[in-house]
Design a protein that fits this description.
The protein is of the alpha/beta class and 157 residues long. The chain is built from five helices and seven strands; from the N terminus they run H-E-H-E-H-H-E-H-E-E-E-E. The protein has a five-stranded parallel sheet. It has a two-stranded antiparallel sheet with strand order 6-7. Strand 6 and strand 7 form a beta hairpin. The protein is globular, with a radius of gyration of 15 Å. It starts with 5 loop residues before the first helix and ends with a strand. The relative contact order is 0.22.
Length: 157
């Protein structure tokens, strides 16, 4: 079993996104962990990126109000690309739900996916556009991303 170093994954993710992601892309973080990463990426990537967090609880309930209304209005009017940001990609179902809800709300801009770590094991046909690394852990292991302010690390939940 191998849990990657989250800081190394973050640096790799930044390097892979630099020069590749649109300079005006919206970075939409999935839940608290994704929002944390989106904010850190916005600081590190060239361009003027705006961030918003998607409410995973509302998303799990199928709610259409998962994206803050102000962010959604700006995304729709600007037609700027969207990058969904998540800490760990595992089965892919949450990503598919998020993309589906964005499309239902009228977002027609390109949507990409950036993940800190990719676990594989997809249950749906999805793959990240940008990944900081791969991890191999037991199927029943749940990982959380933690920070002490500066340092990112994965921890079993």
């Amino acid at each position: 079993m191998s849990t990657p170093n989250a800081m190394n994954c973050f640096e790799t993710l930044v390097a892979r996104m630099e020069g590749a992601v649109a300079i005006d892309a919206w970075l939409l973080g999935l839940g608290e962990e994704g929002a944390l990463l989106a904010e850190r990426l916005a600081v590190r990537l060239p361009g003027k990126h705006r961030c918003a967090a998607l409410d995973l609880h509302a998303l799990a309930q199928g709610a259409l109000r998962t994206v803050p209304e102000a962010a959604l209005s700006a995304i729709l009017s600007e037609k700027a690309p969207v990058v969904l940001v998540d800490a760990v990609l595992w089965h892919g179902e949450t990503i598919v739900q998020a993309i589906s809800l964005l499309r239902q709300r009228g977002v027609r801009a390109p949507i990409e996916l950036a993940v800190l770590a990719d676990r594989g094991g997809y249950l749906v046909p999805i793959a990240p556009t940008y990944s900081g690394g791969e991890m191999i852990v037991a199927e029943d292991t749940v990982l959380r991303l933690e920070t002490d302010g500066e340092t990112l690390r994965f921890k079993e939940a």
